[in-house]
Design a protein that fits this description.
Blueprint: H1 2-24, H2 30-51, H3 61-82, H4 87-108, H5 117-121, H6 129-148, H7 150-158, H8 160-165, H9 170-192, H10 197-209, H11 215-239, H12 244-273
Helix pairs in contact: 1-6, 1-9, 1-10, 1-11, 2-3, 2-4, 2-9, 2-10, 3-4, 3-9, 6-9, 7-9, 9-10, 10-11, 10-12, 11-12
């Protein structure tokens, strides 16, 4: 339970950091696509471990997932950058190819699809000491890059042309975001599973955007929400025999629904106490087609222009 608790805290902190950048870049499903590719890496690690007679046979599963996820994320970034294939088609290639490759390779390794279930849906209760060390190291790397390079990563995520005009290495920063997103997927796969890993990256950010007014505040609040739902889900499954990944995701969705329901009440109360905030936007998810007094009302839905 102690190892699972530490893993849940690390994932709760690290996953929303990269999720904030993916939401800003309108690539919320990228984590899902990388997760599917990581399944091929898990099976490849299993195959190599079996050939080397390692015990357990999945000792190289996480390193294999890291390699496959990084290659997959870079491939989709290259495809998106060259523009010959649309982003959704590139994601579809990752979805189908990742699942098919994982099932095929695990069969060659002498295993069955049942051996992949723990990675598909998460098995935080079985996190070993070696897994925990890898999760902590990768989580620290994700937090270091995501928080330490936040101004530059925010600039390239919000407006590449503006970032290029500032002299920033846009291509390098894009590749860095893709690589760190891949590392985040491999960190979170033992907690919520590869099929649900994108949820723990995106849902805390979606919750935070309901109340936060800047990119920095969104990231900080998302990290707090991520830790809260991961630890709460783990505690619930400690007393009830439920899937931790599914419980964590359902908790996050419940929090999102609660905040979305209370948001009009909070905004109305804030407007009464501060008339300068102006009227409430009746369609916050749709960009306005005319300029109004408050510049924030003109921001595209799901993005933040203030760092």
């Amino acid at each position: 339970m102690q190892r699972a608790l530490v893993a849940a805290v690390v994932v709760g902190l690290a996953a929303p950091v990269m999720g904030t950048y993916l939401v800003q870049r309108r690539l919320s499903l990228l984590g899902d696509g990388i997760g599917h590719v990581a399944l091929t890496g898990v099976a490849a690690g299993w195959l190599v471990g079996n050939a080397m007679s390692l015990t357990p046979h999945d000792a190289l599963a996480i390193p294999g997932a890291v390699v496959a996820a990084v290659i997959g994320s870079l491939a989709i970034d290259v495809v998106r950058d060259r523009g010959r294939t649309s982003g959704d088609v590139a994601l579809a290639l990752l979805f189908y190819g990742g699942i098919a490759g994982g099932v095929l390779i695990i069969g060659l390794a002498g295993g069955t699809t049942a051996n992949l279930m723990g990675y598909l849906f998460g098995s935080i209760a079985t996190v070993s000491q070696a897994d925990l060390v890898q999760i902590i190291v990768l989580g620290a790397l994700v937090l270091g890059v995501g928080i330490g390079l936040r101004p530059a990563l925010f600039a390239v995520s919000h407006d590449e042309e503006f970032a290029r005009s500032l002299g920033l290495p846009v291509r390098l920063l894009n590749m860095m975001i893709a690589i760190v997103a891949a590392l985040t997927v491999t960190v979170a796969m033992r907690v919520v599973g590869l099929l649900l890993v994108s949820a723990i990256m995106i849902l805390p950010v979606a919750i935070s955007q309901q109340v936060a007014t800047s990119f920095r505040a969104t990231m900080r609040l998302a990290m707090g929400v991520g830790v809260l739902v991961c630890v709460s889900g783990l505690v619930i499954t400690y007393y009830r025999p439920l899937s931790p990944g599914a419980v964590i995701v359902c908790l996050a969705i419940a929090v999102y629904a609660g905040v979305a329901a209370l948001r009009p009440l909070l905004a109305s109360r804030a407007r009464r106490t501060d008339p300068s905030r102006g009227p409430i936007d009746p369609h916050p998810d749709h960009p306005d087609d005319v300029l109004v007094a408050r510049s924030a009302a003109c921001e595209p839905a799901g993005t933040t222009t203030r760092e």
